[in-house]
Amino acid sequence: MEAFGATALTRLNAYLSARVRGFDAIRELSKFEGGQSNPTYRLSTATGDYVLRTKPAPAADLLSSAHAIDREYRVIDALGRAGIPVPETYVYCDDETIIGRHFYLMAFVPGRIFWDQALPALPTPERAAIYGEMNRVMAALHGIDPVAAGLADFGKAGNYFGRQISRWTRQYRASETQAMPAMEELIAWLPENIPEGDETCIVHGDFRLDNLVFHPTEPRVVAVLDWELATLGHPLADFSYHCLGYRIAPHQFRGIAGLDLPSLGIPSEQAYTAMYCERVGRARIENWEYYIAYNLFRLAAILQGIAKRAEDGTAASAEAARVGSQAHALAELGWAAARRFSNPG
Question: How far apart are CA 105 and CA 125, in angstroms?
Fold first, then answer.
């Protein structure tokens, strides 16, 4: 309960009680661990539990475009109405006199969150079902019409890769703590090799296993979390990021590269991409290694930002330093994918 201080907590309780139907007095407030960016709290009341998502404390906001929780709230609210499994939203507050930062309140969705992509605790048939369900939800998201969902202005259309490479280069430069030759190679190579053609849909930006809440007993997604990086973008950028686990070893960043996937019941990368293509009506995916290289570069830039916050003492998680240290290895993997794209076979 000490997260905001007694006075701020009293103001928060009054604010939510006046705006959320059925909201009762806050009995307990506890911080969720695992998130690296926007602090997230579980609020317990006599009538139910809620999730409070906030910006970091003002001094922690290192990057100007980060922590835009107003956008996060907007996309969750719109996609819930469009049929995508997301938590119910209640209220967004930009009045910093309440707890000293912007925040929003959404429903707490009970269920299972899996951190290990190998799903070691599950039986083989359920592993296959979990992967199939992830694939289905991502395809459904990419099938949402941004105009019909009220998100036509949620981002820019066209030149998505060019804009994102520029953005993540700036983010990386703002968080740089040590030289990374592979990142320098990617920063130079990626803008010069963007594949032709462009598409636009709603993209999550961080669609991975541990951002999904599964039903307590069924292989069914009941909520997609962490929409901080959502925007209008290229579906293959979003999908290839989701597939990075196939290229990352378990010891690097919870990936499944090198594991015996058939014995685990987990579809291969080729089978998984074919499943997505069938669902979205795409014959095949060209330039796959480029998209993989781009996303490894992007993930390395994100992790470098975490490393910087850990160094500065402003990270939202105690695990930040360990997670951030993986940036170098992912940049190396990205540069290897770029070389495969340039020299196939």
Answer: 36
